[in-house]
Structures are given as C-alpha cells and as structure tokens.
Amino acid sequence: SRSLNLAVIPGDGIGQEVVAEGLKVLSAVLPQDVKLETKEYDFGAKRYHATGETLTDADLAALKKHDAILLGAIGDPSVPSGVLERGFLLKLRFAFDHHVNLRPSKLLPGVATPLAGEPRIDFVVVREGTEGPYTGNGGTIRKGTEHEVATEVSVNTAYGVERVVRDAFARAQARPRKKLALIHKNNVLTFAGHLWTDVFNKVAEEFPEVTTEYMHVDAATIYLVTQPERFDVIVTDNLFGDIITDLAAAVSGGIGVAASGNINPSGEFPSMFEPVHGSAPDIAGQGKADPTATVLSVALLLRHLGYDAEAARIEDAVSADLAERTGKPARSTSQIGDALTVRVAG
Amino acid sequence: SRSLNLAVIPGDGIGQEVVAEGLKVLSAVLPQDVKLETKEYDFGAKRYHATGETLTDADLAALKKHDAILLGAIGDPSVPSGVLERGFLLKLRFAFDHHVNLRPSKLLPGVATPLAGEPRIDFVVVREGTEGPYTGNGGTIRKGTEHEVATEVSVNTAYGVERVVRDAFARAQARPRKKLALIHKNNVLTFAGHLWTDVFNKVAEEFPEVTTEYMHVDAATIYLVTQPERFDVIVTDNLFGDIITDLAAAVSGGIGVAASGNINPSGEFPSMFEPVHGSAPDIAGQGKADPTATVLSVALLLRHLGYDAEAARIEDAVSADLAERTGKPARSTSQIGDALTVRVAG
Ligand SMILES: CC(C)[C@H](C(=O)O)[C@@H](O)C(=O)O
Ligand SMILES: CC(C)[C@H](C(=O)O)[C@@H](O)C(=O)O
Questions:
Q1: DSSP state, residue A30
Q2: Is residue A328 domain-shared with residue A248, that is, in the same domain?
Q3: Angle, vertex CA B105, rays to CA B3 and CA A104, nearest 5
C-alpha cells in the first residue's frame, strides 16, 4: 500500500483556517489504499516571538523527510517586515532548491474579474525561485545617516536560468497551444537580461514546436489586462514573477483562488505548495477566508506526486463550486471546504 | 518679451509623427509674447547606424542650453536591445539628473478602460529616475558558458531617495486628497527597502497633513486593477515605477494618452518630456499613432516652466477631444493634432 507523508505548516492569520479545509479535501480525494500521514509544524510569528527562531537546521532536517509540504500563510504585523519572509519563506525555498515556482492562472466560468468583457485566461507562470534579486546579496553602509547607501544584488547564473527555462519549455510543449513568453527587462538590466535571453534562445532550438516571444516586464503588465488570452506559458525571473503573478491572480478571479507550487523537480528535496495570498490578519479567525486557493494548491501537490486523476477531480470540484457562486450568499471558510469535500468524494 | 528655447528629439518610429503634433499644439497655445525657438536633434537608430554614436559629450553640452526637451520615442528593432536605452534614454536621464520621473494617470470621461465598472482613476506616480536597478552597475563573468554569472546591482542612497520622497510629499500636500503611498518590496529587498521606508517615515513627520501608506509592489498591481481610486500620489523606485506606470497607463486609457516628465527640479539641467509609449515601429509612418500622449507631455512641460494656464488649456482640450471619440471613426495622427490645436487656440 502507498503512503503520503505530508508536512503541514498552517502558519499565521488565516493560514490555520484554510489549511484545515485543504486537508479535508485531500483526505476525501485520496485513493483508499494511500495512507495519509501528516505532521504539523508551528512555524511563523508565534514561534518567532516565543523562541526567536524562524527555521533552524533541525527544522530543515525534519521537513526534508516528508514527501511534500502544504503551507497556509506566514506573516504577521507584529514581526518586522522581512524577518519571516527572509527567515522562513525564502530560507525554505532556497534551502530546498525550489527553483520552479509554478503559478497557474485560469479564469473559470462564473468567476468575477476586474476586467471588462469576457477575457479568456488560461496560462501558467514559471517563476524562477532561487536567484535574481531574491538572493539577499547586497548591504548597507552608513545606516541611518544622510550618507547611507543600500544595495541589492540580483544574481543570475546560466545553471539557474537554464534549468527553469528548460522546465518552462517542457511545460509549453505539453500544452495544446505550445506558446512560451520570456518576460524580463533586457533593455535596461542588460547583464541579467542578456543571460536570460541567450539561454532562452539556445534552449528554444531544442523545442522547435514551441512558439516563443520576448516581452519587457512593463509591457507585460499592459498585455495582462488588455490581452490576457495572449499568454500560454510564461517564464520569468524571481522578482518579475512575484509582481506579474499577483497581477495575474487579480485578473483571473482574485488571490482567493490563486495556487502555487514551489517545486524541486529533481525530488532531492520535498516541494512546497501554498496559496499565493498572505496571512490576511484583518480577517483571521473569522471564518471569512476563501480556502479555494489552498485547495487548488493541494491539487498542484497531488499532480506533482503523480496523482493526476485526483488533482483533476479537485480542479473540477472547484470549477463547479465557483460556477454556482454568483448571486448566492457568502459562505464561511469551512462551508466552502465542506462543499468541495462533498464534490471530490461524490 | 519671453522666450522658450526647446530641444526637439523626434527619435524613431512614430516619434516623428507625434512630436510634429505636439509642436503644433504648443505653438497654438503659447502666449503671443513668448518667442518659441526649437532646435531638432537627430538622436536614435538612424544616427546610431550612421555614426555608432548615441549621445556624445558635445550633444549633452548642446542640449543643456535649452529650457526643456521634448522627445518622441527612441528605439528600433534594428538596434540590439539595450544600446539606445542605456546609450541614449538612460544616459540622458542620468546626465541631466532627472530624478523625478513624473507620470500622471487620469481616466477621463468617455475613455475606454480594460477595467469593468466605472473606476475613478486620478493619481500621479513619482518614480525615482537616477538610482535603483537602473544604474547599470553589475556585470557578467564567463559569458556564453555554462558557468556564466550575471549580476545587476540596485544602488540606493539616502540622498537620492530623500529628494524624490520629499518631492512626492510636496505634491501630495498640494492635492485635495493629500494621500501618498510608498511602493516597494521591503520584505524581500530588505537593504534598499528599509532605506526607502526609513526615509519615507522620517520625511512624513514634516507633512502631518499627508495620509501615508506602504504597499508591496506585488500587492500594488492588484490594487491598480481592483481599487485604482485608492491612489492619489505614489512614490517608488525606478524599476517598480517603470512597471506600475505601464500598468497604470493601461487601466487609465492606454499608453496612447500617457504622458511623462523626466524632471530636474533644481533647474540645473533642462527637464525632458516624453510620451510613455515607445516607437511602435509596426505602425510608424502610417499616420495611425495617437499624438495625445505627446500633447499631454507638452502640457507637463508647460507646467514645469510655469505656464500653468496654458497647460490647463491643453488638458481641457484633450479631455473634450477624448469625450467625443466614442463611436466616431478613427482619425489620423494629424487629424487629432489639428483638432487639439483648434481647441487650444479657440
Ligand atoms: C511573502 C513574499 C516573500 C513572497 C515573495 O515575494 O515571493 C510572496 O509575495 C509570494 O509571492 O510568494
Ligand atoms: C525604454 C526604457 C529604457 C524606459 C524605462 O525602462 O524607463 C521605458 O520603459 C520608460 O518607462 O520610459
């Protein structure tokens, strides 16, 4: 009999609530013969305040033993900006070499979008997850004085760029439209931009069926609101990916339904799945959070582990649920989770 | 009698066409006693191909003598990405210390937006223009090999951040709503982010009437499409400003109407005014380009030089023209320019 050994990190704010629903749906959808084991970890603001720790070597060793990680949200106004982000979220992405940050955007029927008309949106962003301006390189001199200088160094390697570009080409190749857009700012960030562009063009030769285009990140924000149907697969740098995936989420149903995977394709380390949204402390504990993004992250997790049929069942359940929402009174976090659980089981 | 000594840089693609209309409107709106002198410069792709030059020291010395600069667009597919951007556009912004990059966004009545509903959009972005990831710092080692490493260094100084933040506070103070948002990514780019945040909070103490907020750049893209009415004045870093002003232009009528000023508030160097759009080589020479963004850039130029009433007349003419467009057949570049000329003169 098979097993799925899952690390669960509810985290802060609404994290606890949405993860509970994600686990409900996961239990309901898994085949009978798969033994689900979960272990909960207490990372986040509470642990930081209690111990000063965000993520220790021992934590990393414990997490490494799992097949995958499900995360709710990390972040709280009581912790200075950057401490949990750099000390936990990014530390984990870097330690486990989560270089493929996968963020699908699909506007499902019946779902509201801030865009006029009825745009067709169905693309996936492959965001690099371990390089670029996210490395934490840089520093500050003369801090707090009028002569302060602060730098941030974006580090880009052929190794790091090629592996994520290759992953994106393979994904584009596997989709019906077979289109891949590279998004960067190679007319200004010429060192990194040329590396990205050269590697992209080189790898493109191995994928003659994939139609490619290059787009500056500023122009890409325009296309995301005026012609989102243009996109199929996007590959981009860590920071540009951060920015455009929030915009992509906003136009394709909101961050209440945006899922993501921090993937280590080699399997050397467990991959981590999380909603794109944050901990939303303003609505925490009130049962108001939409667990759909977490449930869709569970689908990404299942697909990553080879449970394709189960992932599809979750996605179908979410589509059906969203299609019926218009005009209905708002439901609580657990009501939505229950509805999805019934659908995937039935 | 007064004079206005203007450097005109039509540039590439549609630049020539839109600048011609901008000058028409400028001539029509200027008071009789102001002597307008213009000198045209041939920067751009043609000059680069002919001479290999983009912007020489002699060019800078010549440009420095003008009261202001009007630019159409620079950029052509025949020139490798980055050559004209770094060699002309950015070189000029840096040489003339254009640290206030001003980009207003106003959705005028009757103008189409990709957003649903009827959003009220009226804000201005103060984008830093001489620092951040735009400095060209960084480099490449082992170019073209599998061991290539390319870096980009974002350089941020207290001096550079404070002057632009101060400018933004003054602008917010002068507007009815008196709101200022700082946009950055201080939870990840902690060195630069903390400098920006600390300086912002310090200067805020001098402007107690201004309501402030901080927003991560990724979240800002969401608000720009879901709650654009939230914004009044935004101050941000060079790269974030580049990205969000294209998005802002897209939601508030498109880049056909987005104007910008590259301003040196001290007056030590002439400021430069240009449409946000590029050279659009695909429609160049066909009379299809909308000159409105250039005409509105002329209004910014006039206001910068103290011709407030004339700037307002241009803006009113544009509002009236845009309000009457719906349902009418498309006009040519010069037809739109002529219509605006009649309006400002009348
Ligand atoms: C919280 C933050 C570190 C993170 C990021 O910038 O990657 C978040 O915005 C995201 O997109 O997952
Ligand atoms: C062409 C390019 C150098 C420029 C920039 O990135 O600043 C443009 O996008 C702009 O916004 O003016």
A1: S
A2: no
A3: 145
Domain with residue A15: its CATH number is 3.40.718.10
Same domain, B127 and B172: yes
The reply to whether A40 falls in a domain is yes
A122 shares a domain with A52: no
**Concatenated DSSP letters for A32-43?**
TTEEEEEEE--T
d(C-alpha B336, C-alpha A75), whole Å: 51
List of residues 6+ apart from B77 with CB closer than 8 A: B281
CA B236 to chain centre: 14
State which residues form the domain around A234: 113-252
A225 and A129 within one domain: yes
A81, A121, A166, A216: best to mutate for the B interface, most B CBs within 10 A: A81
What is the per-residue pLDDT for A160? 98
Contact B89 CB / ligand 2 (< 6 Å)? yes
- State the total domains in chain B: 2
pLDDT digit string (tens) for A164-188? 999 999 999 999 999 999 999 999 9
Catalytic residue list contains A91:
no
**Contact across the interface for B239 and A136, Cβ inside 8 Å:** no
Q: Probe ligand 2: pick from B242, B245, B294, max atoms within 8 Å of CB? A: B242
The protein residue with its alpha carbon nearest to ligand 1, atom 5, reads: A242
Could you report the per-residue pLDDT of B34-59, keeping only the tens digit for each? 999 999 999 999 999 999 999 999 99
- Same domain? B238 vs B261: no
- Give domain status of residue A105, yes or no: no
Contact B153 A155 (CB under 8 A): no
**pLDDT digits over B60-115, tens only?**
999 999 999 999 999 999 999 999 999 999 999 999 999 999 999 999 988 999 99
Q: B183 to chain A, minimum CA–CA distance in Å?
A: 12
**pLDDT confidence of B326, banded at 50, 70, 90?**
confident
The 10s digit of each residue's pLDDT in A218-242 is 999 999 999 999 999 999 999 999 9
Sheet holding B271-275, edge to edge: B34-40, B2-11, B68-73, B271-275, B259-263, B100-106, B122-128, B233-236, B179-184, B211-216
Residues A31 and A138 placed together within one structural domain of the fold: no
Boundary residue ending a domain (B246, B271, B301): B246
What residues of chain B lie within 8 A of the CB of A242, using their CB?
185, 188, 217-218
Of the residues B197, B221, B246, which one is the last residue of a structural domain?
A: B246
